[in-house]
Amino acid sequence: MSRMSPPSPSRPYHHGDLRAALLKSAERTLREKGVGALSLRELARDIGVSHAAPGRHFKDKQALIDALALDGYERLNQALAAATEPAEQSFEERMAALARAYLGFAVDNPELLELMFARKHDPDSSVPLAAAVDQSFGSLTRLVADAQEQGEIVAGDPERITMVAAASLHGLAALIASCALDAEEALSGLDGHVHLLLHGLRPR
């Protein structure tokens, strides 16, 4: 009697760090095709696991999008924290370093940043995502408050001053994303931009 051939193996359910693999594949899809192309089934096919496997980490597409946004904010927050770590620098130097970190992230991840801001303003965003958003804004607010204590900048509501600074930096990022401003040109002129932001336009 001839031996029967073993059945073909099905797609594996496990994939090492499945969650990280899914997020990496999702970010690549976001960058190349946009948020509308995100699909848990397609991501499973892309990394070679069963179509049910992503459900272990993301109950649906929206959960995946939230995780992408959270991962983006966590990476941005790490970059901002590292940029403002040298406390011995002047406020202007630390502000320029923070601006460079933010703009660098924006230039490297325009699609992800757009997704991050879209989820930021959604009332249904998760608690961890809201906390990560607060941390990103808080890093600049703390920098402003420290400078006020040292007498380096004017007194006033640090959150309002932070909003003005953040709007200026995000404006640069938006101009780059819309191709109205060259990324290299913006980065090379960032120190001058920060100087104008801090000192104003009146002749000195």
Name its key features:
204 residues; 66% helix
Question: Care to describe what's here?
Answer:
The protein has helices spanning 18-33, 40-47, 61-83, 91-108, 110-120, 127-149, 158-177, 183-188, 190-199. Helix 1 (18-33) crosses helix 2. It is built from nine helices and no strands. The chain starts with 17 loop residues before the first helix and ends in a 5-residue tail after the last helix. With 204 residues, it is mainly α.
Secondary-structure element order, N to C: HHHHHHHHH
Helix content: 55-70%
Sum up the overall morphology in one term: elongated
Strand content: under 5%
Task: Give the beta-strand count.
Answer: 0
Summarize the structure.
The chain is mainly alpha-helical and 204 residues long. The chain is built from nine helices and no strands.
